[in-house]
Write a structure and sequence with these properties.
- The protein has 24 helices and ten strands.
- The protein is of the alpha+beta class.
- Among the domains are: 102 residues, Sandwich (Protocatechuate 3,4-Dioxygenase, subunit A); 94 residues.
- Strands 1, 5, 8, 9 and 10 form a five-stranded mixed β-sheet that branches. Strands 2, 3, 4, 6 and 7 form a five-stranded antiparallel β-sheet that branches.
- The chain is elongated, with a radius of gyration of 32 Å.
- About 2% of the residues have low confidence.
Length: 577
């Protein structure tokens, strides 16, 4: 009983103490009018791009102000803070703010010296307004070096084929995220890229566009139309090997302009090898001109080559933009390329044993005919509708991927092709995952400042001259794309070209985007690893018993690649003049 009494007394004392504290706290809250300062503005980096998630702190007469919630900038770099102060504090008080974010230098205390009295609200509080926008400068943090090394590591692994390019990109992306959520959790200087930033970095317009076009091509393959086109090319040439080479190059380039050039080569290589063997010439003499032509033709349109898809999605360029700006120079480059390769392989072509042309044509007609005419009609209609939507997608404010997705979906419905079969066998999942992981790796380099440093360097070297910038972007893109795969290089260059387009006088016309497209796509012709179509062609030729060495490929393709880049240089400068 005694213990219970003591326990009740203890509880009573505790409750009295707590109530006294609460009453005291309530009496400390300001009950009368107060000064309300609303501060707003925007935070940008040195390139004028908004900086999100910048932590903002405020100081009143040198003392830090404790706000009800943490103030950070939005995705657009904007912020707004409300600071309550005792009535009469403003305008005589000294109000300062400070900004902090990993990979950026902490700003010095910024004095808010333009505080304007706005009104007195219904509660008698005096409302003041202050607006201040400012620029945060980059800092070389540990995150910068880590992101730079990871990007370089991915490039090296891809260029020297140490591992599959998809695995290399996945390893790089995983490293960036892992370091952010381990070391970056305890030391902000090691924070590179958040998971949310990584998800936003993936350009799903590119992924969905590639996936949908793979489905459309996969359905078309069942009709035998691509092999039929190769047979018709031979029939049109009527046994003239020079005409055959030219026609095959043109057909390959035209097909690659509307379908993925990798898929085009996958379909045309087996037929080309059979024709070459029948003519008793080395298939390489036809395959090398074809793969070169596929990259030239793919350069002409938005959907013809993966770098163009990436550029179009990033810069919001339409199908018509690509066709109107690149078709003519691609046709000129194709014509020059045809002449070059016919001359280069002249001796090999003269050794061809044509034999009975009509018999061979009859054999090819029987071997490579349209197998499903009704399906081909469906494919032709849906491909035509899809291309039409590509042409008008800019007017509809519709992403190109939507046009491709509706075309692929409707084609699957009307053709009754097994969707599971398409997903398992026709969609190149390693390629799509490679793109997704690569976007994350490049986003890490951009978030930590590497991309901006490169962009500033290009700007300074060019001296702000549009001509110098055009030539730098074109030639650096061409040479780099010949050394490494043009897809990761293009991904790295996108934010750089976007910045240069904004700051260099005259670049607002978009000419630097065309320089990047021409350099990346045509430069990829220079070596066997420069473009995906090259790798596929070399692999299939080797499996058929016709190996192509790295040095042989470069010996044949480097010179015409340089010739096309020279032509592009004159073309781009002529357009700007």
């Amino acid at each position: 009983m005694k213990n219970r009494f003591i326990f009740l007394i203890f509880i009573l004392i505790l409750m009295v103490g707590l109530s006294g504290s609460i009453i005291a706290a309530e009496t400390q809250k300001p009950t009368g009018p107060f000064d309300l300062l609303i501060v707003s503005g925007t935070v940008n980096n040195a390139q004028g791009k908004a900086v999100k998630e910048v932590g903002l702190h405020f100081f009143l007469n040198g003392e830090k102000v404790e706000l009800e919630e943490e103030i950070t900038t939005s995705k657009a770099g904007r912020y707004e803070a409300e600071i309550k102060m005792p009535s009469g504090t403003l305008p005589g008080a000294r109000v300062e703010m400070e900004a902090r974010k990993p990979s950026y230098k902490a700003s010095e205390k910024i004095l808010l010296d333009k505080i304007v009295k706005e009104t007195i609200d219904e509660k008698g509080n005096t409302v003041y307004l202050a607006h201040h926008s400012f620029t945060l400068q980059r800092a070389i943090s540990p995150a910068f070096w880590i992101a730079s090394l990871v990007l370089l590591l991915v490039y090296v692994l891809i260029a020297f084929e140490v591992m599959h390019r998809t695995l290399a990109a996945m390893l790089g992306a995983a490293l960036l995220l892992f370091i952010t959520y381990t070391a970056g959790t305890f030391y902000p200087g090691y924070s590179i890229l958040t998971f949310e930033d990584a998800m936003q970095a993936m350009d799903m317009n590119v992924i969905f566009l590639l996936m949908a076009m793979m489905i459309i091509v996969g359905v078309m393959k069942k009709t035998g139309v691509f092999q039929w086109m190769a047979y018709k090319s031979f029939q049109l040439a009527r046994g003239n090997i020079f005409a055959l080479a030219a026609i095959l190059m043109f057909v390959t380039a035209f097909t690659s302009a509307f379908l993925d050039n990798v898929t085009t080569m996958l379909l045309i290589i087996p037929v080309t090898i059979e024709i070459a063997v029948t003519l008793k010439i080395n298939p390489i003499t036809l395959l090398m001109p074809e793969v070169f032509a596929s990259n030239v033709g793919g350069t002409a349109t938005l959907i013809g080559d993966p770098p163009n898809i990436m550029i179009g999605s990033y810069a919001k360029l339409s199908f018509v933009d690509f066709v109107s700006n690149l078709t003519i120079i691609c046709l000129i480059s194709l014509a020059v390329t045809i002449i070059f390769f016919i001359y280069w392989y002249k001796k090999d072509f003269l050794k061809a044993q044509v034999g009975d042309v009509q018999k061979l044509i009859a054999h090819l007609k029987e071997e490579y005919k349209i197998t499903q005419k009704t399906l081909l009609v469906y494919c032709g209609i849906m491909l035509g509708i899809t291309i039409f939507l590509f042409i008008i997608h800019g007017a509809l404010h519709m992403e190109p991927s939507i046009a491709a997705l509706i075309g692929a979906a409707v084609l699957l419905v009307v053709s009754r092709v097994d969707i599971v079969e398409m997903l398992e066998h026709e969609i190149e999942w390693p390629t799509l995952i490679f793109f997704m992981m690569l976007f994350i790796v490049v986003a890490g380099a951009e978030e930590t400042g590497l991309i901006q440093i490169i962009a500033d360097w290009v700007k300074n070297v060019s001296g702000g001259s549009l001509v110098a910038a055009i030539l730098m972007v074109l030639w650096v893109s061409a040479i780099a794309s010949a050394i490494i795969d043009n897809i990761p290089f293009t991904a790295t260059m996108l934010p750089i070209v976007a910045y240069l387009t904004q700051v260099i006088p005259g670049a607002q016309s978009g000419v630097l985007w065309w320089a990047l497209a021409l350099g990346a796509c045509l430069g990829g012709n220079g070596t066997m690893i420069g473009a995906s179509a090259n790798v596929v062609t070399v692999g299939m030729a080797e499996r058929a018993g016709y190996p192509i060495s790295f040095m042989y490929y470069m010996k044949v393709a480097a010179l015409p690649m340089l010739v096309t880049i020279v032509l592009c240089s004159f073309w781009l400068l002529l357009v700007e003049m």
